[in-house]
Automatic annotation (TrEMBL):
This is Uncharacterized protein. The chain crosses the membrane at residues 20-43, 55-77, 83-103. Keywords: Membrane, Transmembrane, Transmembrane helix. It comes from Nocardiopsis terrae. The keyword Transmembrane helix applies. The lineage of its organism: Bacteria, Bacillati, Actinomycetota, Actinomycetes, Streptosporangiales.
Length: 107
């Protein structure tokens, strides 16, 4: 049970909903950019310093860990819609991996 009293409007987050949404958007932007960037660096690891395993581990952390972090933050803040959108970002790794491999095989 929460020690915080429920809000009069039926349990919605009325304290700082805009601030939570901004934090979720920043985390989503990190996941959307760092996931594909790390994956491309992992694929191309032999031409620069660093191993592919390190880059792919960072990619997994960015593409999967950040959306889970965003969902957790939104859940604690009481923003269900932002939490669901954060969890929807878990489909993004499948999309960018498929697109990257299709583009590499086509070109």
């Amino acid at each position: 049970m929460s020690e915080r009293p429920s809000t009069p409007g039926g349990g919605r987050n009325t304290r700082h909903p805009t601030g939570i949404r901004v934090v979720i958007c920043v985390l989503a932007l990190f996941a959307l950019v760092l996931g594909p960037l790390g994956y491309l660096m992992g694929i191309d690891a032999d031409s620069h310093a660093g191993s592919a395993a390190e880059w792919l581990t960072l990619t997994f952390g960015a593409a999967v860990g950040i959306p889970f972090l965003a969902a957790a933050v939104a859940t604690v803040a009481g923003d269900r819609k932002a939490a669901l959108w954060s969890l929807a970002l878990l489909a993004w790794p499948v999309v960018f991996v498929v697109v990257i491999h299709l583009l590499r095989s086509a070109g």
